[in-house]
Amino acid sequence: MALIKSISGIRGTIGGKAGNNLTPQDIVESTAAFGHWLLSKGAKPKVVIGRDGRISGSIVNELASATLRAMGIDVVDLGLSTTPTVEMAVTMEEAGAGIVITASHNPREWNALKFLNDKGEFISKADGEALLEIIDSGDIEYAGVEELGKVLHDDRYIKRHVKAILDLPYVDAALVKSKKYRVVVDCINSSGSVAMPPLLKALGCEVELLNKKPNGRFAHNPEPLPKHLKDLSREVVELKADLGVAVDPDVDRLAFVCEDGSMFGEEYTLVAVADYILQQQPGNTVSNLSSTRALRDITERHGGQYFASAVGEVNVVTEMKNRNAVIGGEGNGGVIVPGLHYGRDAMAGVAIFLTLLAKSGQTASALKASYPEYHMVKDRIELTPQIDVDGLLKDLENRFKSEDYSTIDGLKIDFADGWVHLRKSNTEPIIRVYAEGQSPEAAQAFADRMKSAALELIG
Fold this sequence. Notes:
Its cofactor is Mg(2+). GO terms for molecular function: magnesium ion binding; phosphoglucosamine mutase activity; phosphomannomutase activity. This is Phosphoglucosamine mutase. Keywords: Isomerase, Magnesium, Metal-binding, Phosphoprotein. This protein has 3 domains: 153 residues, 3-Layer(aba) Sandwich (Alpha-D-Glucose-1,6-Bisphosphate, Chain A, domain 3), CATH 3.40.120.10; 209 residues, 3-Layer(aba) Sandwich (Alpha-D-Glucose-1,6-Bisphosphate, Chain A, domain 3); 84 residues, TATA-Binding Protein, CATH 3.30.310. The protein has 15 helices and 20 strands. It has a 7-stranded mixed beta sheet, sandwiched between helices. α5 packs parallel to α7.
């Protein structure tokens, strides 16, 4: 059981004792601190709330909503929704902030409160630190009986979200409709079951759903990785479908399965979407340091410039704005389309990808084969608690200083035909090692080389 309070939100397991898990006390305490932070900024006292399909979702939702109202803050409650839908609703409602109730790809016993600013974007590091200070201080004041907030339940935002996607210049709904694609969607028994069907049907697709009950009883590990998508792969082949779609519980991550049952690869979700957008609007791209090099290759192929950010959506968004990027995201299947909103959006990713398929006239597997081939491995360097991790990373930086490297988030070393990214774990005495090469063996060799160098320095 666990409770994690960080600048990116409050996450924990349901049940157990207060202070050690995400209990009603912890939910109220954290929401009240967020409300206090919002009011202290002079922001509009109105918050949009939405949740994924988790078993505990409605309870967390009700507690958070009631707490905000007790502080004199009005609530627009979207109920069962998606993270990107809540993000868009914040600006559409001209609200002061938003709360998304989701633990993303974590198992069903987890839930979380993720906080958005008035732009519908995750709050900054500075705002997150300020919020944690308020939680620790407990200095909260509630409204009197005549100043209590109101709640409006509004379930129309999925429809509005779909319309906004169809209005994107990158989406050719008429062309996609003419193809009459058959698409199988693994909804993981969460919000995908309410968000994906209306979008795909508006695009003229024949839709088959797997795990379609939004009851939070995830049919498999909810992270959309190849090892968890075997049922989807089999269904795509058996139904002779054109595409398989997998989303995580809150529909901000996206992975595709090709018509032959092979994996398109979640790293290549962003690559494909960027490829199409750059054909329409040349410009810069951004992803985090741990994402595939294929995005850089595609960007340069279209005459643009690629930039890397520290890991974390808020960091990607900041860099996208700094570089005026036309597309960006994360290699975990997160696509951020600035023309829609600055947040990962699986729904937008699906619509743009289908437009790319329709215009190219290719199958998903043929499209994947047209991109630079890279393979990634994830490893770790085990350490004792006594080892100075920052010092070790500095020593590794000095050892490889003749290479192209970055220290904006741990240490990333770019070699001619691959890269290695090392990041200190915040919870364990380990260094996480991410490596990419032109084959699985090459990627592992890069990781092994770095592990050997670290162990040699440790002695």
